[in-house]
Amino acid sequence: QPQLVESGGGSVQPGGSLRLSCVVSGGNFDFYAIGWFRQAPGKKREGVSCINKNERRPDYANSVKGRFTISRDKAKNTVYLQMDNLKPEDSGIYYCAAERSITLCSVSREEWFEYWGLGTQVTVSS
Asked: Mind listing the pLDDT tens digit for each residue in 40-68?
């Protein structure tokens, strides 16, 4: 089964940018759809973005459309989440997740994802 490790979190001011990375090991990277999810203190975890095995039709939460971009690098077994124009409400722990059986991913289907990383903290504050 795959192992997922997130990195790239940190503290930034509103309007700033961060790029999160999710490195996938222990499995064939090409077999997995990858999603990014986040959880703020006291709130439920929510979907942010996901990308399919063939990179077509990525999905984004409405709250991040136009600001976040998901991509995958086959050579590095890595999925990136470029986050621009960050807002305080983007703060939270960001998790990446993988699932082999997904044909078309959806950020509203967290339950589809079987394998999860431990998360990386993102704090947006002035």
From this structure: 999 999 999 999 998 888 999 999 999 99
Q: What is the dihedral of CA 36, 40, 44, 48, to 10 degrees?
A: -20
d(CA 66, CA 4): 26
Q: How distant is the alpha carbon of residue 57 from its chain centre?
A: 15
Identify the band that residue 17 occupies on the pLDDT scale cut at 50, 70 and 90: very high
For residue 125, count other CB atoms closer than 10 A to its CB. Answer: 10
50 to 11, 13, 59, 73, 98: CA distances (angstroms): 23, 25, 5, 14, 9
Question: Which DSSP state fits 57?
Answer: S
Residue linked to tokens 């999603």: 35
Phi, psi of 78 (to 5 degrees): -130, 140
In whole angstroms, what is the distance from residue 5 CA to residue 70 CA?
Answer: 16
